[in-house]
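B., you asked whether I could sanity-check this one before it goes into the benchmark set. Here's the sequence:
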Amino acid sequence: MPFTPFHFGPGAALHAVAPKHVSFLAFCSANILIDIEPLYFIVTHQYPLHRFFHTYVGATIIMVLTALIFMLSLKLASRLKLPNLFHWQSLKPIPIWLGAAAGSYSHIVLDSVMHSDIVPLSPFSETNALYQLVPLRELHLFCVFSALAALAILGLRALLKARHAG
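And here's what the prediction gave me:
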């Protein structure tokens, strides 16, 4: 993806459909952590840009790291008086783990379709069967329409909630 925000669309849609079951914050955090790797290689002018963390093995490490950061932050939040933006302090472990997993693995799938330098099954295989499986334009449209669908679902949910309250 031409940097991380495109990855957020499918996660937003997943969260909109199952808001109590999937943490969108963990989803986004995992995506951002994965893309630190190519950012480093872009800045240092090294190729390939997508290396270890753009494999399923690397994504698994990112998933665990993301979930553990959230779990540790939850434990420290009350002691350190951390701000509770987006109500993250009310997140439960399972939605955190599901969000981190969905974010990590969907990132690898989407980037595998788009980038020729990804070997998602490394160290077991040096091939990328997903590369160009879907045209780039359609891949981007999928991500954008996923985000729009999420906004529509969230908007409809808010409208229905307001009607029932008033």
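One thing to flag: Helices lie at 8-17, 24-34, 36-43, 56-80, 93-114, 136-165. Otherwise nothing jumped out at me.
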